[in-house]
Amino acid sequence: MRRVSRLALAGAATTSLALALTACGGTSTSASSEADGNQGLAIAYDVGGKGDQSFNDAAYAGLEQAEKEFGYETTDVEPTEGETDADKTQRLVSLAKQGYNPVVGVGYAYATAVKEAAEKYPDTTFGIVDDSTIEAENVADLVFSEEQASYLAGVAAAKSTKTNTVGFVGGVDIPLIHKFEAGFKQGVADTNPKVKVLSQYLTQTAEEGGFSSPDKGKTAAESQIEKKADVVYQAAGLSGQGVIEAAAANKVWAIGVDSDQYKQEALAKYKNHILTSATKDVAKAVYNLAKSVEDGKPETGIVRGDLKAGQVGLADSNPEFKNNTELQEAITTAKEKIISGEIKVKTS
Predict the structure, then answer these.
(1) CATH code 3.40.50.2300 for 146-280+318-340
(2) Which of 20, 46, 255, 257 is the most exposed, having the fewest neighbouring CB atoms within 10 Å of its CB?
C-alpha cells in the first residue's frame, strides 16, 4: 500500500508533536503514540470550528468518509481564538510532520499557512477550501461556484416572497461572500425585478466575529424582517444560525447555506422555516482529494465544484419546497440555462 513507505516517526517525537499540535488547537481525534506509517487525511478547521452546521461540518463529513473507506488514521484540529497566520502554519506543519497526507486547511484564512507549509513539505499534498491563490505543485485549491447556487436561491426567494422584499446576510465583507450576494441578487432580479433585496454584512473582518456570532446574525435578520423581508438568505457560517432563529421566530423563510441545514439536528426546531439551502459539496471535495492521494495521483491546482459537476445546488429536503411545482420548474429552468452558459452568473 502507498502508506507503508510513509515517514515513520519515533514514539517520543510523535508525542512531542501531538503536544505541539494541541498547543495551537485541540484535536478531536488524538494522534497515536506511535506513527505507524498509515496516517491519512487531516483537516484544520476555520473560524467556528466543528459544529458550525456549515462548511466545517461538511469538511468533517468528507474526513469521516475517507477514514471509513481507506481504513487509516485521520485527525481534525480546532482553531483557537485570536490565532495568527504563524499559529495556522505551525498547525499544518505539525500535521505534515506527523505523516498526515493530505492536509487540508478549511477556509481562505489558511492561504498563507498552506503556502508556507507546502514549501516545507513538498512531498505532502495540501488542500485549501475556498481559496484559489496558491500556485504550488503540491497544493489543491478546492473552490466552488457559490454564485451559481446563490442564483438559484434568488430564484427561490423571488418565487416565495409575498411582500416583494427579501434579505441577504453576509458574515464578513470579503470577495468570497460577495459571490453569494451577487448571485442571489441576480437570481432575484431575473425572476422578479419588482422584488427588493436588503443586504447587510455583519463585520468587515473575520476576527470581529462575522462567521462565529449567532447573536449578530439574529440582530441583522430581525432588522431586515422589520423592513418586511419575508425570505432571508444567509452566508454567514455559525452566525447564520441566528438568522435562521430570527426567521423562525417571525414565521418567515430562511435560506441556509453550504450544507442542507433543514436536516441538521442542531437546527431541527427551526427546520419548518428553512425553505432550502444553497449547498456546496465540501465533503465530496475533501474526500476526492484524499482519494486522489490514496490512488497515487494527487489533485493539484484549482479544483472547482459547480452546478455542472453537481457540487453546488439547492437542497430539497423541505417538502413544501420540493412539492412546489411552479418553484421547481423555475429552478430547473435556471439551472439548465446556467449550465448551458445562457445565463452567466455574476461574482461581484
Answers:
(1) yes
(2) 20
